[in-house]
Structure formats: C-alpha cells, structure tokens
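Appendix B. Raw example, untouched.
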Amino acid sequence: MASIGEWKAPKLLHCSVWSGRTVSDRSDHFGEGCFVHGHIVPCLGSNPPSLADVTSTNGSPPNDGSALRVAFFGPFGTFTEQALRTQRDLSDSELVPMRTVPDVLDAVSSGEVDCGFVPIENSIEGMVNFTLDALAFDHDLIVTREVVLDIHLCLAAPEGTSLADVSDVMSIPVATAQCHKFLREHLPNANLLAATSTAGAAKSVAEQSSTGLAAIAPRVAADLYGLSVLAEDIEDEEGNQTRFVVVSRDGASAPSGHDRTGLVVFQRADEPGSLISILQEFAARRINLSNLISRPIRPGGLGEYCFIILAEGHVGDDLMADTMRALHAKQGLVKWFGSWPRADGAVSDVSSHADERWKSADDWIADIRSRL
C-alpha cells in the first residue's frame, strides 16, 4: 500500500465512539490515535503501526494483494456502475451488484466486500437521505473518495412501442422526480411505478415486454436490456449531476489540499442557539460548509434531530481538527465519517489563508509561553 508521508491523525482529536463501544474494542491503529470503526480515539496501544499501514493516498481500501471486491448499487447498467467504471483502480476489481444502497453498506460492514460505491447527492433532488442516514446511524464506515457523473435520462420501452402507447412509467422515485416536466407535458396520465433503481426498471420492463410499460433509465441500461429509446435527455434541468462516494471500513484518504470532511453532530440539548453555536466553530476558522442538513435521530422521537455537515477541509488540517475538537467539547457526541478529496479539485483560498493565520497565532502563543 502506498505511504502518505508524514501525515497522521491529530493527537488531540477525540471523536466519540458510540453504540456502547469503548477504546478497548479497537481493531485498528491510526497514527497516535486509534481508528475504531470510523472514529479516532486516543490510542492505548504501546506500539501502534504507522499510518501508512492503514491509509491510502487515493482513497482505495487497504488490500492484501488479492483482487478487490467492490459492491455497488445495481443491477448492471445503473449510473452508479457508470461512475464506478470511471475509476480505473476500482473498475478492474470484482464488481458485485446489490439491490439497494443499504445492501451495499451491509456488505461492506460485514466484510463480504472490500468497499462500496453508492450515490450521496444529486444536483436537482439534493442529498440522498437513505445513504446519509445509513452512514450516520447504521454503520461505522468512512468515505474515502467521491466521483461526480453527468446524468442523462431517457424513456425506454420494448421494441415497437411508441410514446402514445405508454400508459405506465417505471423508475426509482428520485429519477422520476427529475423528469416531472417531461412527464407532465408528454405523459400526463401515465401511472408512475416504483423500482429499486433506474437499471432495475429497464430490466423489469424488458422482462415484462408490455407495449404499455416504459422505463426512465440511462441509455446504457436501455441498450444492455434490449429496449428502444423513445426520448432522450428527459431530465428537467441541464447540468444534472450525481455525486457518488466510495465507502470502506478503513483506509482513510490522506490530505490532498482540496478535501471534504463529513460529520454528524448531535446536540447536548434542544435549546435556542444550539445550531448557531455549532456554526460559529466553522465561521470562526473560516471553514466553508458545502452542505448542512438536519435529520431525525434514530432511535428518537418527534423533534429530535442531529446535523449532518459536509465541510471543506481535512481532519489532518489544523483548522479542521481544532473545529472538531471544539464541537466535541461543546456537543459531546460527534461522528466523523471521513475526509476525502473533492472531485472538482477546488482549493479554498480562504481556508488556506486562515490556516496560515492560525499557525501564526500558535507561534505567537508558543513564544509567550516560552517566557514563563
């Protein structure tokens, strides 16, 4: 596995380990902290291995040299598979299609596969909540990489079907929602049927071979399952894109200078100002947030929410580590689910300048303390 040089997890970052786990349950070591099922905690081991033993520079999961098994949201023909195949190191692996996103994450957690590939955000419909919820509540996995794919949807049906013949349209609901304008204009009376994926819809339509049934699916899936394309590029908005992520049990990505960090922050108490107290920690350090959503806590009651945050920066950066340290001290329970390179490669000048100022302030304090 590739070494990442001198980077190591910040010594003072103590992320909560939940679900009843304690430090003694650790299974891997992470620099001067222990990497425990997606969390960094103080390491009690006497001789922890180097970070290079558990970390990859490109976000690939650790591997003993055997062929990787990569689970993805299937079946074959999904946008998820298309995005996965843009990653040469993963596309050469053994690809294992799964029926649902939770199935993918379950397979990663159980060790059935080395890593998983799932959608997390769409530019029209927003965050994919069942992916976020699974990462926040159901699994202790980390995101190691993201991939962005342009999304183009088509309406496909068995050979000989015309647009006027279509009475039922099948697809995954999030894809149907991205094509409302086309459906209202061309198929206002069509029944909308749910499928587990766009490619799954194409496969079902091909198997049923009904002239009244069509699928909203990728062109690749239509071709794969022998369907005719009745209309192309039927998505409502130009520039439709989906962000996908690689998830793994370990193998955290090294800092690249253009990273994103995922956090779940739980409130100590539901009280006025609790959200602003969280946001102040990022604002004070000039860290930009690319996404902030509230999600119901599981298990929990009505009105009990946590905040899922995607922020620019890496846990290996001093500013991000200090922000996470402050959040942990304030809120008590903070879950880190990865720091990974952004797909667009953009670097935040504000953050880098703030980091320089923060280091300058550290030097100033160190100079004062040296006189004591």
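End of appendix B.
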